[in-house]
Design a protein that fits this description.
The chain has 300 residues and is α/β, with parallel strands linked by helices. It is built from 13 helices and 11 strands. It has helices spanning 3-15, 18-25, 29-43, 59-83, 98-103, 105-115, 128-136, 171-177, 184-187, 200-211, 225-234, 243-251, 281-293; strands spanning 48-51, 54-57, 91-96, 120-125, 142-147, 155-169, 193-195, 220-222, 238-242, 256-258, 265-274. Helix 1 (3-15) crosses helix 3 (29-43) and helix 2 (18-25) crosses helix 3.
Length: 300
């Protein structure tokens, strides 16, 4: 049994496709087919069902997948244990959301660079689906996203912290609305400045409105939440964004949070790595700093 056969098996299981696995590894499809056939012959089991151009793991294949991840991690661990001595000086590539990159990561990166100045740190921004794809293809080491709790047998979840999503208003509109709790129905005539539909908190708001038979057409729509905040400070309107993104402006009186009676949302800041990748010390230290920067749990 060769290590490359095990890595190829993991890729085929991940993509559910011999051709896509071959493309990701830089092999020909016939080479991938041969490697899987040799692995099946050595194990004396059928790892994949191949029906109507679809590839799926058999029961034995699912059992072997867990073993395969463990083998790859142990090999990576052995290699790293021989090379890591003293001060951290490796590379770390993190994928994250624009909102987290804008509001949460600057402080984390500053601490990380102070503690580990020899580490080459790279940050890539994208939407969750893009970032998950990059992690699955091995293009990033970690992804830090905001979503409902996610899970996959192929991933390691390294952190999960609650993050509140709030309705936020421009100062002028905040004064008009006044104190106390409001309902979504009361706000429907206000101009909304919202992220694009692929943003998770936008999808949450749309679902809540759809449940009431309503929808909203944004007066302004942008993929950049940081841009929406700048516009909102000087133009009357509402937005629906993570609290960590707006809290500094709220403290300074440049924005105000609208207390809602029928719209309270909690999402989760989550950090994942792929099980095919060994969790390096650089990754562990980055996750540790992210967990320290996460909000304290709200009192019950």
């Amino acid at each position: 049994m060769e290590l490359r056969q095990i890595s190829t098996f993991i890729r085929v299981a991940q993509f559910e496709s011999f051709s896509k696995a071959a493309a990701s590894l830089g092999y020909s499809q016939s080479a991938v087919t041969v490697q899987i056939r040799l692995l099946e012959e050595e194990l004396n089991v059928r790892l994949f069902d191949r029906m109507y151009k679809r590839v799926s793991l058999t029961g034995q294949g699912r059992k072997f997948l867990e073993c395969a991840y463990n083998i790859i991690q142990e090999v990576n661990h052995a290699a790293l244990s021989l090379s890591v001595e003293g001060e951290l000086s490796g590379q770390l590539h993190v994928g994250t959301l624009e909102s987290l990159c804008y509001a949460r990561l600057p402080g984390i990166v500053r601490q990380f660079r102070t503690l580990y100045p020899k580490v080459n740190l790279q940050i890539t921004v994208g939407i969750p689906e893009e970032l998950i794809g990059k992690m699955d293809r091995g293009e990033v080491d970690l992804i830090y996203i905001l979503d409902d709790p996610l899970y996959s047998n192929s991933w390691n979840k390294l952190m999960e912290e609650k993050e509140e999503i709030v309705m936020v208003a421009s100062p002028a509109l905040g004064r008009v609305l006044g104190p106390g709790k409001h309902t979504l129905e009361q706000l429907m005539d206000c101009p909304f400045y919202l992220t694009e539909r692929d943003a998770n908190y936008r999808r949450f708001l749309d679902r809540r409105l759809a449940a009431r038979g309503r929808s909203v057409t944004p007066a302004l729509e942008s993929s950049y939440a940081s841009f929406l905040l700048q516009v909102l400070e000087t133009t009357e309107g509402l937005s629906y964004l993570p609290r960590f993104l707006v809290e500094e402006r709220v403290r300074q009186g440049r924005l105000s949070v609208v207390e809602m009676e029928d719209l309270r949302s909690v999402m989760y800041g989550q950090i994942f790595s792929h099980k095919e990748k060994w969790i390096t010390q650089e990754m562990k230290e980055f996750v540790r700093l992210c967990a320290r920067a996460a909000p304290e749990p709200a009192p019950q």
